[in-house]
Input
Amino acid sequence: MTEIELTVFVVDDDHDIRTALSRSLRKRGYQVESHDCAESFLQGYDGRRAGCLVLDYGMPGMTGLELQAHLAGMDCPLAVIFITGHGGVPESVQAIKQGAIDFLEKPFRQAVLLERIEAGFDLIRQKLQTCRKERQAAALFDRLTAREREIVDRMVENPSAISSKEIGARLGISPRTVDHHRARILEKLQMKSVAEVIAHARHQRG
Amino acid sequence: MTEIELTVFVVDDDHDIRTALSRSLRKRGYQVESHDCAESFLQGYDGRRAGCLVLDYGMPGMTGLELQAHLAGMDCPLAVIFITGHGGVPESVQAIKQGAIDFLEKPFRQAVLLERIEAGFDLIRQKLQTCRKERQAAALFDRLTAREREIVDRMVENPSAISSKEIGARLGISPRTVDHHRARILEKLQMKSVAEVIAHARHQRG
DNA sequence: AGGGTTGTAGGCAGTATTGCCTAGGTAACA
DNA sequence: TGTTACCTAGGCAATACTGCCTACAACCCT
Output
């Protein structure tokens, strides 16, 4: 499996911290990208690059918390680690509740940050792994035609009425035609039973 | 549906806070139970009573964090709200990561605590609801005999090989006997298709 | 105009499932 | 020693599914 390159994104309005962190992380072999504000980061981020976001909590303009909330809405492969000079308990509570993996008060020891970054990378690797599997499965379903998908939907919605007769009645077509579609569906999804199709589809859609 | 009585458990070594909170909460109609230490709470808690645990973070003996961790291991219907005099950011981060719904610094406004207690109650009501449904479904599966459960397991594990012949071969019994068991299974689970059984079983076990 | 895709539908043979019947063996239990 | 529950397994008939074939109409694209 090709290992995806993970990046540490550093977003902090404090120039000294940015350069210190960047240099230190690069020296340790990390791919680093730093920005002086949330807006600048967002401009260069496409929603697909993966890694850790080391994020200052209190910045002029869009705050770290706002950026985190915005990213959470995009469901992107980033683990957020807050670093803050003045944040307190309520701020940290909200950040963690919103999904940050940690909230460090400046000054912090680099060793702690490095450890958190590694933890974040692990998390993201796992997330990407899961995501990849889901995409593979979704790709199979995408090959179905509209009618075929409709039939899968009927079966998923109501697994107690999956006979050709019942589905045919629901869709107003001949049971024989349902047989036909079902055969295509099993073939396209590379599965051997309707039960398997339903199990997979449910797993995907929740 | 009978509404389950939710309790606010107050655990704090500070006598004044205990009495003030208890009185205030009781006045508002809450069922309150207070303890001066984690051990005392645990002695009286059976793992089933539901509600909110308003928990002091720093107590002599077992700390609030330790109590929370212990309760988390029991998967009990309690929403934990920390209150603390001296805790800081790292403590609050750990508490939230462990599943606390909030972390309030003393002194806090009662209105805030009340709001959080209500949020906790909502959460717990939802959890109980989900739990009830799961138990109902599990109760159906419990009526299966060992052999029947084994057959369900085979079908769940490998939904692409659910024909009587295949399962019979795996279990070393006649396909005809598998037919028999399957019929019993569908009858006992009140379902109409193998696909339905698999979908439900998967949903239950993850 | 021709070719590909999709949805529709039927025939036919082989296989699978289902419901309803019987029936023997074993183990637990009163 | 019965009784009960469970696992086993077969017969038989009705129903359903599967795989292979054909066929036609609608639509889109070239």
